[in-house]
Amino acid sequence: MTANELPIGVFDSGVGGLTVAAALLEHLPAESILYLGDTARLPYGTKSPETVARYTRRNLDFLLGRGVKAVVVACNTASALALDRIEASVPVWGVVEPGASAAARVARGPIGVLATESTIRSGAYEAAIRRRRGDLEVIPQACPLFVPLVEEGWADDPITEEIARRYLEPLLDRGAEALVLGCTHYPVLKPVLQRVAGDAVSLVDSAETVAALVAVELAAAGLLRVTAPGGPRVELCVTDAGERFQRIADQILRDGAPPLEWVEV
Ligand code: DGL
């Protein structure tokens, strides 16, 4: 197999990063993906930078060991806390910088950032947006209940709407015109978040921007795959049993999810 034919490695703490994998599959129709969901160690969003960096390093080593030509860190917490601490022999992209670029492009007024506690505490989104648009107010909001609600499959439940209202109201009261979905699980909540925020507020999902960036940079590195593989385009690995993972993955991936492989990292 040539380097170009190797899959793109993608990892997240759980199932949410599949929203990024789905965007990659859409933008890069010839590529295949090796996805790792570190379900045994989820959540990352409440953990220290040191711990998240250690998990990130292990995930990266696992993917490199299986043979990937590039890696997308499809976890906002790992991108915010660990990306600048790791080195790799292949291109590695996080989701925070592309998310901040997308937000800076669409926003005209205050930008709300919705993310896990650790991502908010790191200030990574605020810094990345301010570097691009120093004129805009950035309002951070940790939303710790969103991940368990998505994992539970309650994206469309009245309880989720009520909780979203509690998290979003302070941002909307301060005039937020765009909301960055700064956690890979949150795109699953888009319908409820849009309902609560209203149509005038833009929801910024970094998945599309990440996919576009990966397409450009893979091409520049001469690593694009030209012909799609004959078989399945996605392999899914998890570090803990994944009944729930399988169910949600089936909803996120357009062609449904393949069977899961249980791995140790
Ligand atoms: N994947 C994480 C993120 O994007 C959210 C889930 C977790 O806390 O591990 O921040």
Q: If you had to describe this structure to a student in words, what would you say it looks like?
A:
The protein is α/β, with parallel strands linked by helices. Helix content is 44%, strand content 16%. The protein contains eleven helices and ten strands. The chain has helices at 18-27, 49-66, 76-82, 96-106, 117-122, 124-132, 146-151, 158-173, 190-197, 206-220, 243-252, and strands at residues 8-12, 33-37, 70-73, 92-93, 111-115, 138-142, 178-182, 202-204, 234-238, 260-262. Strands 4-3-1-2-9-10 form a six-stranded parallel β-sheet, sandwiched between helices. A four-stranded parallel β-sheet has the order 6-5-7-8, sandwiched between helices. Helix 9 links the parallel strand 7 (178-182) and strand 8. Helix 8 packs across helix 9 (190-197). The model has no long low-confidence stretch (mean pLDDT 94). The structure holds D-glutamic acid.
